[in-house]
Amino acid sequence: MTLQLGIVLPTYNERGNLARLIARLDVALVGIGWEAIVVDDNSPDGTADEARGIAREDPRIRVLERIGRRGLSSAAIEGMCATAAPVVAVMDADHQHDPALLPAMLAAIESGEADLAYASRFAEGGSAAGLSSRHREKGSRIANRIANKVTGIELTDPMSGYFMLRSATLRQDAHRLSGVGFKILLDILATIPGPLRVREFPLRFAARAEGESKLDRTVVFEFLVGLYDKWLGKIIPTRFALFATIGGLGVFVHMAVLATVLAALGQQAEFGRWITAFDVGQTIAALTAMSFNFALNNALTYADKRLVGARAVLAGWLRFALTCSVGLLANIGVAALLVRMGFHQYPAALIGIVIGSVWNYALSSRFVWGRF
Questions:
Q1: Whole-number mean pLDDT of the chain?
Q2: How far, in whole angstroms, is CA 322 from its chain's centroid?
Q3: DSSP code for 6
Q4: By C-alpha distance, which of 118, 121, 98, 100 is closest to 108?
Q5: Which of 254, 294, 304, 307 is disulfide-compatible with 312, CB 3.0–4.6 A?
Q6: 280 and 158, same structural domain?
Q7: What's the whole-number mean pLDDT along residues 86-95?
């Protein structure tokens, strides 16, 4: 049977859902040549091994296991570029997306009726009952309104993760996609030039079958990051902008700690001939701000490479401290020197922070969240 449709299934800890989903696809796509590409982000529950086991019995199943990187959007892009099928779909593997919609969506694309077909929770006849809370449903509606403004296309659910389009259309502009965050459909709609003919299909969004949602509290942040990337990412690289923003927050932390220490010790206090209250305060403030920056960068800036587990986080913090040690020494040393030269304490501290930050970004990206 000629291959007509490639179905991309980005996964993370979906071992218990895969076999039943493949069985549902088999029932829904009778008479259609299809393959499923499981793109797994090295799930600790053995999802990739489960997929390989299924693939040994069913050659329509393929597995891409990604090591050292994470993210639903980037996984979807890699999967869509890996299929030879002329039409490609993306859907979740947790049974919240109904495979029964696939034949009608495929017919709309193959007939030329639409360039892109997607399943909408908020279209007439659809339902968002599977969302975990009313707060998430409300948040999805607000995000949809913002997304419509960004894309210039009025859709009832541009934040949907269940859609289909021609593979050639995707590959033509794949290099321009940001691959940031969870909302790959938004990325596609905002990137592919020219008005796309879009047809929506009402989706009754079901509850997750097994496991926990991949959408943690950083999903709103990643949505905003995706918007930034589309608007300004070509001017200032997104990851650098995030690192710098968190560094800016770290400045406030630094100054607050410095002020607290100086207030507690007395601004003119001295501890021996060479150590002043400012030296002590600057050291404590720099260490505190460094720890603050590490925690936020691990959770947000490097969410796709996030360190998890007490041992990995502690090792990451130690590497972060080591790579930032030269910047930290420059920070403290330059600031202390400027104070002794007559500069006011707070401007001197700011200059020290700027000098230290240059080193921090350059090496932490490489040696903390990258590869040696």
A1: 83
A2: 26
A3: E
A4: 118
A5: 307
A6: no
A7: 94
